[in-house]
Structures are given as C-alpha cells and as structure tokens.
Specification:
Number of domains: 1
CATH superfamily: Peptide deformylase
Shape: globular
Low-confidence stretches: none
Mean pLDDT: 97
Largest sheet: 5 strands, antiparallel
Strand order of the largest sheet: 1-2-3-6-7
CATH class: Alpha Beta
Strand content: 25-35%
Distance between the termini: 23 Å
Bound molecules: nickel (II) ion
Order of helices and strands: HEEEEEEEHH
Structural class: alpha+beta
Length: 169
C-alpha cells in the first residue's frame, strides 16, 4: 500500500516518535509499505512520521533500487558516532520543491534494530551518513530546516504559508 506523504505543518512531523517494542508481521507489512511509498514519492529515505505513523522506523535506499543490498531498515535508530563535516544540498519529501545546503557530519555510525529486533551498527559516509542523520532527526521531530539559518528557515516557512493559503500545499 502506498501512503500519502505528510507535509510540513502537520504536527506529527515535529514530535518524538514512539519506540518500537514488537517485531511482528504487522511491522514487516508496514516496512514493505514504507519502501513502496518512498519509491513512489521518488525518495531515498522515509521515516514513519512522514506517513503519519509516529513510530521510530525509517527506511533508506540511497541507490534508489539500483542495488538491493542498499535497502536499509532502521528501527529505533540512534547516531552513536560522527566524524568530519560536509555541506551539501538537502531536501525532504515532507518539504517538497525546497532544497538548502545543510552541514552534517561526513561520517556517521547508526545503531538500530532490524526487522527481527536484532541490534546492528552501520557506518556510512557522504549521502548515506546524511540519510542516517536526516532520518534519525525525523524520529526526534526534527526537520532539516532546523539546521539552516533562521533567516532561510523563515523564508521557506513564509513561502509554505502562502502555498497553504492558495491550497497548493
Ligand atoms: Ni525528510
């Protein structure tokens, strides 16, 4: 099932999502649906709050279907180590048609659980490190625009409010 993507302005995007404690068939189905929804929206990462489900689950595929091994499921993820700094243009499916340069750690190690609840750690650099940080932020109610200047953030919010008024958001 393809879920619609929740956009900026919905409070679900700005609250801390709940820890996952049960690893059952319902969770596996939800994760299948999250991959399907992410690909349908042309994204390389999706967090459950972006489909209105406030649980600590994210899916990532920075190769966008090129490499099946790149499909990653992150349940209850935490960033446990970072190195370096890297600034790059970043966007978010919940803030469509906007992009900004965002400074992030260049290398990031995430500790998470897989579909069966097994704990694993994975280190990524560049785009994968960025995805780990962006998606983990989502589960803490944080959007990438919190990492840019107040001036740029207010500009984006003003533009979004205008779109909302016109019914185009
Ligand atoms: Ni996002």
């Amino acid at each position: 099932m393809i879920y619609p993507i929740v956009k900026f302005g919905d409070p679900v995007l700005e609250k801390r999502a709940a820890t996952v404690a049960v690893f059952d068939a319902e969770l596996k189905k939800l994760i299948d649906d999250m991959f399907e929804s992410m690909y349908a929206a042309k994204g390389v990462g999706l967090a459950a709050p972006q489909i209105g489900i406030s649980r600590r689950i994210a899916v990532v595929d920075v190769t966008f279907k090129e490499n099946p091994d790149a499909r990653l499921v992150l349940i209850n993820p935490e960033i446990i180590h970072t190195e370096g700094r890297h600034t790059q243009s970043e966007g978010c499916l919940s803030i469509p048609d906007f992009r900004e340069n965002v400074g992030r750690a260049k290398i990031a190690t995430v500790r998470a659980q897989d579909l069966d609840g097994n704990v694993f750690e994975k280190t990524g650099d560049d785009i994968l490190a960025r995805a780990f940080q962006h998606e983990t932020d989502h589960l803490n109610g944080k959007l990438y625009i919190s990492h840019i200047s107040a001036l740029k953030r207010d500009l984006i919010k003003r533009k979004i409010r205008k779109l909302m008024k016109k019914g185009e958001w």
